[in-house]
């Protein structure tokens, strides 16, 4: 059941539990790209999971708010019988790199919350749990904001966001950080919730580094719906999974 909770939490908050071993600060990539942030919206997802023969179902809500200078992302997930599994937030500003987090909050089932703080004046990232630090070079994301930075980059790139292309980000987790690489797989049809129906989507995959036992992530972005994530699938090495499907979009 412990693994089920970890995976269900990952699906609900759009990449909050992915990550591998931390990299040295000198290997920290900083890549500046054009971006186009999508409109503010409330997104509702259904969750389905399989773990060691057990099936779980639930729902997740995500609130995305952005203006010319600030953004907030709040996500919660719930599963039948267990109630709330995760609560995650990313808050920050919008700068020349795109989303620039100032705080990342991570709360998981039966665990104390943790935070990562982005000191923009001191150009340093610190953690409430642990003494690791990372420099702010530009473009750093957390495990909630990275999906929305990916959306913003895809919206701006369009013709360059094609099969085989790769997109790297430096991603902060609850206690450390590492580089993530997303590879565009291609266009596919995705069956979303009843209010959306079949959706044309761009399939993007984040595979763990060779030799890693980390989860893999498949994410489908919907160009016809502002490039919002319409489906996500997290898969463990033993093929257990969490799948998250968009049921409803309410623009704000």
Give structural notes:
With 252 residues, the chain is mainly beta. 10% of the residues lie in helices and 51% in strands. The protein is built from two helices and 15 strands. A 15-stranded mixed sheet has the order 8-7-6-5-4-3-2-1-15-14-13-12-11-10-9, covered by helices on one side. The protein is globular, with a radius of gyration of 17 Å. It starts with a helix and ends with a strand. 41% of the residues are buried. The N terminus is likely disordered.
Question: Which characteristics define this entry?
Answer:
single chain, 252 residues, mainly beta, 15-stranded mixed sheet, 2 helices, DUF3108 domain-containing protein
How are the secondary structure elements laid out?
Blueprint: H1 2-12, E1 41-51, E2 54-66, E3 70-79, E4 83-95, E5 98-108, E6 114-119, E7 124-127, E8 134-135, E9 141-142, H2 145-157, E10 166-172, E11 177-191, E12 198-206, E13 216-222, E14 228-235, E15 241-251
Parallel strand pairs: 9-10
Antiparallel strand pairs: 1-2, 1-15, 2-3, 3-4, 4-5, 5-6, 6-7, 7-8, 10-11, 11-12, 12-13, 13-14, 14-15
Organism: Massilia orientalis
Protein name: DUF3108 domain-containing protein
């Amino acid at each position: 059941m412990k693994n089920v909770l970890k995976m269900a939490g990952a699906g609900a908050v759009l990449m909050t539990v992915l990550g591998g071993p931390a990299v040295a600060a000198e290997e920290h990539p900083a890549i500046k790209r054009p971006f186009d942030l999508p409109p503010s919206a409330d997104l509702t997802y259904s969750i389905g999971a399989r773990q060691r023969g057990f099936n779980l179902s639930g729902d997740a809500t995500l609130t995305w708010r952005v203006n010319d200078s600030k953004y907030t992302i709040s996500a919660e997930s719930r599963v039948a019988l267990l109630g709330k599994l995760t609560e995650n937030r990313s808050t920050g500003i919008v700068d020349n790199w795109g989303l620039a987090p100032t705080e990342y909050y991570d709360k998981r089932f039966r665990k104390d919350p943790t935070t990562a703080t982005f000191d923009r004046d001191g150009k340093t990232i610190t953690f409430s749990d642990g003494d690791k630090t990372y420099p702010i070079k530009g473009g750093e994301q957390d495990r909630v904001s990275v999906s929305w930075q990916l959306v913003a980059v895809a919206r701006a790139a369009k013709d360059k966001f094609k099969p085989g292309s790769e997109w790297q980000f430096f991603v902060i987790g609850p206690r450390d950080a590492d580089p993530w690489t997303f590879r565009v797989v291609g266009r596919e049809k995705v069956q979303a919730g009843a209010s959306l129906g079949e959706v044309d989507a761009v399939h993007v995959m984040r595979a763990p580094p060779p030799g890693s036992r980390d989860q893999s992530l498949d994410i489908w972005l919907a160009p016809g719906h502002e490039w919002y994530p319409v489906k996500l699938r997290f898969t463990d090495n033993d093929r257990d999974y969490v799948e998250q499907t968009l049921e409803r979009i309410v623009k704000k």
